[in-house]
Amino acid sequence: MSKAKILVVDDEENIRFLLSEELTDEGYEVETAMNAEECLQKCNEKPFDLVVLDIEMPGKNGIEVAGELRKQQPGLKIVLLTAYSHYKYDLSSWAADAYVVKSADLTELKRTIEELLNL
């Protein structure tokens, strides 16, 4: 089976690096984007199986990007990632398949990604 392709979108370079390293170690093919524009451009150029999207970014936020991706690629799995748990109750965040609060422990994120890709 081919490796799942994941796009990690976060405006913080250290977070992009950490997530990319961890997910690559899990056997995924990982690319990164630093903002909404780069994310949308990469998603138009090639198919991804799943996108991990930071909510709080300069310019368009992750919820807006999730909505656009959902229209363009209805089958794409989307995980919103944020340090702020209040978004869980924001109805617009339902444009995503899952929602994970940022943590130094990536167990929940990895489990969520695995579950979504195995549906």
Automatic annotation (TrEMBL):
One of its GO terms (biological process) is regulation of DNA-templated transcription. Residues 5-117 form the Response regulatory domain. Keywords: DNA-binding, Phosphoprotein, Transcription, Transcription regulation, Two-component regulatory system. It holds the Pfam family Response_reg. SUPFAM superfamilies: CheY-like. Gene3D superfamilies: 3.40.50.2300. The modification 4-aspartylphosphate is found at residue 54. GO terms for molecular function: phosphorelay response regulator activity; transcription cis-regulatory region binding. GO terms for cellular component: cytosol; protein-DNA complex. PANTHER family: DNA-BINDING DUAL MASTER TRANSCRIPTIONAL REGULATOR RPAA, REGULATOR OF RPOS. This is Response regulator. It comes from Pseudothermotoga hypogea.
